Amino acid sequence: MTLKIEIKRKALHMTGLTVPAVYLLFGKEVTVLFVSLALTVFLILEPFRTVEELRERIKKKLGIPEEIANKIEKEIESIAREHEKRGIGAHIYFAAASLIIVLLFPREVAIGSIAVATLGDAVAAIVGKSFGNHRFKNGKSIEGSLSHFIVGLLILFPLVGFKIAIIGAFVGTLAEFYEVPPDDNFSSQLIIAITLYLLGVR
What we know:
Elements: H1 3-13, H2 18-26, H3 28-50, H4 52-62, H5 66-79, H6 90-104, H7 107-131, H8 142-160, H9 162-178, H10 184-198
Helix pairs in contact: 1-7, 2-3, 2-7, 3-4, 3-6, 6-10, 7-8, 7-9, 7-10, 8-9, 9-10
Protein name: Phosphatidate cytidylyltransferase
Keywords: Membrane, Transmembrane, Transmembrane helix
InterPro entries: Dgk1-like
């Protein structure tokens, strides 16, 4: 992906910060409802994103002009990873993991893990694309990984303290670096949350 497309993708990805924001402002119950509704909408719409026949039917029923429909489809396809074009989208993995975390983990763990996975990933990708001169075999860069760690540390420090923040940020950076299956948008959040919980954050 080019830097321009990566920025578009990460700008969309950054909407995930609405989850910790809602938690901070309105608490756990509202956040569970918010994420549940988002996940439900994503699951309903997902077949229309991946199955061309369904998209064509909807376009005809809604009377969307061909030119506008093609432009929208092109934009969506341009920011999708190759495995997402015919498979599960990152937004579904993200929402599913967020819901699990908000339901099962304490407030600081939920807010911290989701915020780090969201903002850390976005910053790492953009910094890596722009300034990543020292790359590993998987295409990741030292610069991108370091920026992920710093972002994680800055987010976690006021929530869990410096020592735990260092470990949480480091684990989050490793999860992002290795893109743990089934999808890093799912696993990164959970790995950070589990780590913080095991370190005693309640």
